[in-house]
Write a structure and sequence with these properties.
Growth Hormone, Chain: A, two-stranded antiparallel sheet, mainly alpha, 2 domains, 2 strands, 77% helix
Length: 429
């Protein structure tokens, strides 16, 4: 990597790790919210969907802004917004108490839970900026793109694992005071924003030039009107990008549906029993959840490296097909004992993140450079916007049906995404 490659890679690694640190703190809070607010998995699933859907829905305008104005400033704003939303989350009980009502009209939930929902919406809006901005920065500014995807994905998974781990440790140290834990977690994002302002990068260094020697792109920088936005969108959706978009939507539904309630599911599996530590009962499930996500570091790194060595469509097909099989085998493994459950959890963590560099690279293959931000905006609209419905689907499946129904749905999502990957591979061949 050259100096600019390293600067961009360092910046996106910082921001990507922060985004997923916060994203995966939420599932650790879920059991505490269920207990404190006296509600159900279905209600919490809807609350999480509100915030997490903005994580995706905001990606589309963020992609337009990344094409038009560049990525670095958007990444700084993302970090500031995430830190501020966690400060509000920590203040939720105090703010809810100021409303002076026992439940919110129409929705009928505790006012404190309503403030939690607002904080989640603000977090989702801020976090939505990152992926279109960060991935556009990699694909337009980094020459060694495969390595950058590998390091970027690895950093995201470090954050993914640190989120539940640090949250669990802080909850133990602070006697399950989740409000104080949320406030403490706000600090790294604010510090990261300050550090990001000091990074200098050439955002267009890797884009094809019009014969210039300075590496600056002569491409039209994005869209600047509604008509141009619609025209560019039509250009994207007249070809195979439609299939890519379907794959990322299925990916998002599987991702959110599988991960949102896993800590709660672990608490109910016979294979996982509470242990005593320092006179307190500790649920090992949170640590197994952290381990599952930590294994994803290897998946992200392997997937990123392989995007330059295998057809990306084949990586999609194999990765998602494997996830479908894992979902079918997960509950039988849990019933067979702790060791089979740990093995399947490790495989789930590996392949859940192995596929991400492949769909990120596939988007780059099926979109023009001048609309790269918009294409990633649509991508993360599918992954995190439509995908956020996976939290509601999982909550309803667990509340109204059973664990078996949830994992059957996940299997169907994975296998269908794998089939679409084979369709793309056949077309490319």
């Amino acid at each position: 990597m050259n100096e600019n490659d390293r600067a961009i890679t360092g910046l996106v690694m910082l921001a990507h790790s922060m985004v997923h640190t916060y994203e995966f703190a939420f599932p650790v809070f879920v059991p505490l919210w269920l207990s404190q607010f006296g509600t159900t998995e279905a209600v919490i699933g809807v609350v999480l969907t509100l915030g997490l859907s903005l994580f995706g829905l905001g990606s589309l305008p963020a992609g337009v802004l990344a094409d038009r104005y560049g990525s670095k400033e958007l990444i700084v704003l993302c970090l500031v917004g995430m830190g501020g939303s966690f400060l509000l989350l920590g203040a939720a009980p105090a703010v809810g108490g100021l409303l002076g009502v026992e439940s919110l009209p129409v929705v009928g939930v505790a006012p404190e839970l309503g403030v939690v929902a607002v904080a989640l919406v603000l977090w989702g809006t801020a976090a939505s900026v990152y992926h279109p901005a960060g991935l556009s920065l990699i694909t337009r500014g980094v020459v060694e793109r495969g390595d950058a995807f590998a390091y970027h994905g690895t950093a995201g998974n470090v954050g993914t694992a640190l989120g539940p781990f640090v949250t669990t440790v802080l909850l133990f140290a602070l006697s399950d005071n989740w409000e104080l834990v949320a406030a403490v977690l706000a600090l790294p994002a604010l510090a990261g924003a300050l550090a990001a302002t000091r990074v200098s990068v050439d955002e267009m260094a890797a884009v094809a030039t019009d014969g210039g020697a300075d590496g600056a792109s002569k491409a039209d920088p994005g869209v600047d009107s509604l008509g141009e936005f619609l025209a560019t969108s039509r250009q994207l959706f007249v070809g195979a990008f439609v299939v890519v978009f379907a794959v990322v939507m299925l990916s998002g539904l599987y991702y959110r549906g599988a991960l949102t309630f896993l800590p709660e599911l672990f608490a109910g599996f016979d294979a996982i029993q509470p242990v005593e530590l320092a006179g307190r009962e500790v649920e090992p499930g949170n640590y197994i959840y952290t381990g599952l996500l930590a294994v994803g570091v290897g998946g992200q790194y392997a997937g990123g490296k392989l995007t330059d060595r295998l057809p990306v469509e084949l990586g999609l097909a194999v990765g998602y097909g494997t996830l479908g099989v894992i979902a079918l085998a997960y509950l039988p493994a849990a019933e067979a004992g702790l060791v089979p459950l740990l093995v399947l959890s490790a495989l789930l963590g590996f392949f859940l993140f192995f596929v991400q560099p492949f769909y990120q690279a596939t988007v780059a293959e099926y979109s023009p450079a001048e609309a790269r931000g918009l294409s990633y905006g649509y991508t993360y609209l599918g992954v995190f916007g439509v995908g956020a419905l996976g939290a509601t689907v999982a909550g309803v499946a667990l509340s109204a049906f059973s664990q078996a129904v949830l994992f059957a749905i996940l299997a169907g999502l994975g296998l269908f995404a794998g089939l679409l990957g084979f369709v793309l591979y056949g077309r490319a061949r």
